Amino acid sequence: MSPAHAQLFLENFHHVATFGATDANGVDRQAATPEDKLSRDWFAHFARARGWEVRVDGIGNMFALLNWTPGAPYVVIGSHLDSQPLGGRFDGAYGVIAGLHAAAELDERVKSGSDDGSSAVPQFNLAVVNWFNEEGGRFAPSIMGSSVFAGLMDEEGMLCVKDLAGVTVREALESIGYLGTDERPEVAGYAEIHIEQGRILERENLTIGAVDYSWYTQKLDIEVLGEQSHTGATAMADRHDALVAASKLVLLVHDVTQKFDEEAIVSSVGHMTLEPNSPIVVARRVHLVADLRSASPEIVKEARASLIEDIAKIAREHDIRINVNDFDIRDIQYYPENGLELIEKAAVNLGLGVRRMRTMAGHDSVAMNRIVPTVMLFIPSVDGVSHCEREFTTDADMVSGLVTLTAVAWEMVNG
Ligand code: HGY
Ligand code: MN
Ligand code: MN
Ligand code: MN
């Protein structure tokens, strides 16, 4: 890749980071918001300017299609442009913009006849994807667009999901002009590059991670139903305070990890809403979501069972109702051996340090790996920080990842 192309990639990456930019160098570009529309419009412009076909499907997934061989299926590369609220500017967006520039590089190679002597026109076409709502911050569950694409979630059901303001996915996508009807491309394989969102590559001074499996994850949707009353006039013995019960629950979700080996399981509550949320009213309802993850499904199931028991005790103690629903359950995904070897070979050829590693974070590749051969690459995160405005990855590592993705995608389109 020429230095000029690498420079253009960096300029584009930093330009997209201005869509929904926050004062502290992060982004707030949640699914189907006006800020998300800005990044989608940019994606479509980048593709159309190069003569690529742009499609939008029924759940807002966007595809840029490079039709080299009429009728051939597509190797799809990409990730997601939506972010967490007050999130990082690298999570997802890096993989989409690297995907676009890897495609531009390979398009050049195919159009000018490949420089490495392999067949000029590859066996498969190439497509770049921007998946809808990978983050699940505004609309739960997460990894929505790619899961609908992979047939793991029902499109109609997901279009009816509402955000906190009661806006449905369908209404939100219509409001930004990205509720499509285009036919989904036939996929021969999938490749995604992403920041690690952990500390391993940085600690071992490596540049590329070849993801070999993803952790088992599930969420608990919990509704605590107490009784509204006056914070001044109601005797303590007469209160059914949903927030006191919910607060005990939050600590239980954190403390359950201590029943297992250190770091064998991670869990927390990251989302909580309160009704009526007024200073002199005892809360009647609290809605919270707990996130449980482990390399061992058995450990998550054991932790869940322990929580269900404790939740029943709290409900009895406070004479309130607590409803618990499991959702967003993602089984462990193992990525194919030949894909790992592809990443390792490309990295070694480029003189980059590489190792195999798991992902604790969920990704669109977790959905795609259920239907097509899938490879997932990581580049380092400084301090391992993510889902936070302080998220950072160096330009040099981003370019190294881009060049590696380009090499891997070239192998994949040539079958
Ligand atoms: O679930 C995840 O880990 C991803 O960030 N959506
Ligand atoms: Mn992500
Ligand atoms: Mn994320
Ligand atoms: Mn909620």
TrEMBL record:
This is Zn-dependent hydrolase. PANTHER family: ALLANTOATE AMIDOHYDROLASE, ALLANTOATE DEIMINASE-RELATED. Signal peptide: none annotated. Pfam families: Peptidase_M20. Zn(2+) 2 binds at residues 91, 135, 387. Its cofactor is Zn(2+). Binds 2 Zn(2+) ions per subunit. Belongs to the peptidase M20 family. GO terms for molecular function: hydrolase activity, acting on carbon-nitrogen (but not peptide) bonds, in linear amidines; metal ion binding. Keywords: Hydrolase, Metal-binding, Zinc. It comes from Neomicrococcus aestuarii. Gene3D superfamilies: 3.30.70.360, Zn peptidases. Zn(2+) 1 binds at residues 80, 91, 194.
